[in-house]
Amino acid sequence: MTSPTAIRTQGVIRRAAMELAVEKPVDEVTVDDIAQRAGVSRRTVFNHFPSKYDVYLPPVVAYPKEALEAFATDTSTSLADAIGTLLDARWQNSDVSLDDLRELMRINGESTELRMALKENVECERAALTTAAARRLDRSEDSLEVVALVGTIQAIERSAFQAVMVHVGASSAEVVTTLDRLIEVWIKLCAVLAGYPVPASDP
């Protein structure tokens, strides 16, 4: 477990890096620049982050192992409820700064290296989700059903963040609330695609 001191140091380093990215393109920011702005040594930066680009990545919010296991095995629960429970478990205790994520999205377009680092970050969690989805559906991981399910879950997450991050100072709690609403929207859209009557909205 990361110590409180390490978490504080990482926060100072990340904040320094974000400030510098406002002043100049992220590819022009050096580790020495970050260390100087953060008031730490170059070695300290590398003690906490493998590379300069990792400094800009938000802390990984993993799917809890227990939640993935429940998603994979509890087929008595509806798929919509299972998705909601899994996403709630992932984000309800998250302390990711949405303002930092908003800034990351801005600078992400400036740097191929940063985009690749972010993609690698996301793919690690996608792999765990894919394994759980394959177990739940009893299909191979490369089956269309699993690909579609994983893509749907990730699309719901992206949509929630896009909806929330337009508000400065938004919190992770708002993400969880928005996720629940988006799952309701997804259920209605599935009904429309299948040609069924649209479920009524809750009052």
Supply the key terms.
203 residues, mainly alpha, 10 helices, 70% helix
Helix fraction, binned, reads: over 70%
How many DSSP E strands?
0
Poorly predicted runs are none
Beta-strand percent range: under 5%
DSSP helix count? 10
Largest sheet: none
User: What is the H-and-E element order?
Assistant: HHHHHHHHHH
Shape: elongated
Question: Which structural class do you get from the secondary structure elements?
Answer: mainly alpha
Mean pLDDT comes to 87
Radius of gyration: 19 Å
Gap from first CA to last CA:
44 Å
Give structural notes.
With about 200 residues, this protein is mainly alpha-helical. The protein contains ten helices and no strands. Helix 5 runs antiparallel to helix 6, helix 5 packs across helix 8 and helix 9 packs across helix 10. The longest helix is centred in the middle third of the chain and has 26 residues. The N and C termini lie far apart (about 45 Å).
